[in-house]
Predict the 3D structure of the following.
Amino acid sequence: MSQANITRLREEIATCTRLLVMTGVMDFSGHVSARIPGTDRILIQPRDTSRAALTANDILVVDLAGKVLEGEAPAPGETALHTEVYKARPDAAAVCHGHPNISTIFSVVDRPLLSVRNFAYRFMDGVPVHSDTTHIRTTEQGRALAKTLGAHRVCLLRAHGTALVAPSMQELFMDCLDFEENARTLLCAAALGPLLPLTQKEKEELRTSYGRSDYRAAKVWEHYLHKGRLAGAL
């Protein structure tokens, strides 16, 4: 991969992270990473750099054993969450681990995180809950998390947060927003009366409908780029 493309990936990680902070999906902790295509290396933010101030120059290069190859700062304590997911999921180009408030609620109740918004048809194959409540720091823990995630787009970490994978940074950002918004809608709807989640028939109809809008991730990204600049987050 060319250096120009690696620089672009660094910029996308910094931008995605700062926008997720702005939208309340990420706080002082959590991390976004990207696979450097054609290599066994990933780009990930340092452990201690503020997520609200992250820049492309802060981003580390780390191998799949978690060793920092480029950069002076330490990698996140939960780097194994990312590296083991990349090992298990060749389709994963980007990974986000965060602690969104509403989604995480569904990891501590006996109620599935159902799809109730039309865009949430993408999560209807299920949202598994990983039982380990501690930080995913070791290779063994990361491997176990990757097994729980399986082929899903997202899984919950019990009493902890979320792990999402996507084929691009723009789609990762969109899924982070959509997953939390679906959880927020579900929580509100449950207080009003019996739930009417999306059906399998609706899922297939929505798959076709949204398939005609494959530009949506780019559209969401562009909107939030401008919103972030206006808000001073970028």
Summary: The domain at 3-231 is CATH 3.40.225.10 (L-fuculose-1-phosphate Aldolase). The first helix runs from residue 3 to 22.
